[in-house]
Amino acid sequence: MQKMVLGGVSPFVYNAIRFWIATIFAFIIQPKQNLKYGLLIGLLLTCGYISQTWGLTLTTASKSGFITSLYIIFVPVVSYFWEKERLTFFQKIGFPLALVGSYFLSGGISGFNFGDFLTLLCALSFSVHVVSLTVFARKTSETHLMGWQFGTVAITNTLLGLNQSWSVPLPAWGVALYTACFATVIGIFLQMKYQKKIGSNTAALIFVGEPIFSTLFAMLFLQESLTSFQWFGALLLLVALAFASVKAKEPNSKERG
Known about the structure:
Number of strands: 0
Helix content: over 70%
Strand content: under 5%
Number of domains: 1
Number of helices: 12
């Protein structure tokens, strides 16, 4: 949806509008917000968005997509040092499959430039953000973690977009409203509510479904097509996604190496 209507709209302006709407909804749902945790999570999310947007201007979309997906691999590392959560047997298989699958689905990469480095920082920021949601959602209610988290992203993107054009067409406002409600407020609320139960590592493997669904909808609505290597990558991601569900059946999985 964003790709169809956001041509010519500054990503900073769009993100500012999207997250201001999300911030308003978050404070309406729960006026009392946790400032400390919310700001920390928001700074991580902001760093991810900024480095991704800046990096994308200096590298190709396929390389950006693959390098960003590396956050899936970074999550278990961050989770181990922060939460002492170890990988299960099936996760040890699933994460490498997810990495290889992402590589093939993105079309592969070649070379490494400053844009790729920025995108790597994006992946690291998103991985710490995923783990932080698990940690802080176990300490306080999910509704207390949304307002300042979204507000931090909104303020930062507003400042970065001051010199950009704020003339935004009506369809873009509609997409911003949709993504603010469903992809941001509801999406992150559900992520925090259930991620604290299944753990960061399982959540990371479940997230490999995102590029699969994105590709599917791109094929349906944008008439994009896949090569045989990309189909192979999508298949590997589906297998990795299947391994994520196995963990739920294993007792005391956190203590098992």
